[in-house]
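Hey L., structure's done. Input below.
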Amino acid sequence: MFKHFCGSISLFTLVIWGGCGGGGDGVSANPPIATSVTFSSCAVKPLLGPDNYRSAIMDMRFEQPNDFTADGKLVNSFEAVVPVINKIDCVGFDTVVFQTNIPIDIATGKLELYDSRLGAFNPDKNIPKDFWRLVEYAKNKGLKVFIKAIPVNHISDLTICPSCTSSEFLLPSTFSTTNFFNALSSYETVLAKEAEKYKVDGFYVGVMNLGLDTTQYEADWDRVIEQVKAVYKGKLIYEACNRCTAIVWNKVDIVAIHTSNVFEQAPSETIAGLSTDTSILNLVGDVQRIVNLYQKPVLLDTINIGATGKSTDLGAVLSGAIPYANLQPNYSLQAIKIAAVFELLGTKFSNKVVGLQWSEFMPWSQATWIQNPTNDTAWRWHHVQFYGFDLLNNESAQKKLSEYFVKPWL
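Output:
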């Protein structure tokens, strides 16, 4: 039942990007380098309840030993990521979602923490060594923290989503669901035990595992959740698409709806027009259906609104199929669409929507080869990071979010 509508989910939002470790071939003509973020003052946050979430997703998948900031720090190190968390706090977010991977060998379904291919960038797929130290830092700042470990192909970083329509998600006949759920149970238990130690507020048991989140696998999910609950006392979360019906949503505390690029795709360029756009009204209706069906608090998750303000095939830019110079920002349109999310939250979305999760802050985009590109591949990544949906390098988006974060939304 998923296949006829999952094609509307952006493929790129289901690929958790990875810094490719530098470089590329071919020197290109040099367009102006985009300016890194600066921010003059911090948002004054209104008091919200403990069960409301203004969340920034932060990409923290694995160590990147070849990628350094301009001042020589490893991009996912404590020293490099602390300023990113400070920025998230300053913009007005009250929750940091530490997004990481559960790397799966799709040939077997087993956990695979090392990419053994010759020449593989970032072959070690364990979480960054400073991951939990950074979780502790965020908690000590008074931020709420979620752990979002996404089951992915250990080579491509594509989400394990067999009912997604694109051929990239196809799993070989050798993929074992028994191995897959064993991997989830064992690895999530390790992560959940640490999450409990640091009093993490929410923990994802799965993310967009469409086709595996059905009644057929209910007993497998029960086992995974039982193992996690044995070591972790916080809220459990599962994320699936807005058109989905997922058995796992019955078993968790918070329903996360993968919002993706719905607002980007909407053609209107005014808040009034967006409020009557068919795709957005469909999302509103889907949220109400899910609220009525599951009777759980809802997060609008993985909200992607890039600097162009419209849906863009970022994967095609990275591959070179679309010239990177074609990717140009439209910050005013992006600001309108960011505003529309909040305005619709206040007027059309159910009061069961308890949080907005914005995608995303990418500490690895501070790598010198991205910030100061010297070849064609690096220029493509530079443009995608500055003009895609990376919020770290987009001061305009930060300011618009702050305008709403100082108001008592939610």
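The mean pLDDT is 90. The two ends are 33 Å apart (CA to CA).

-- N.
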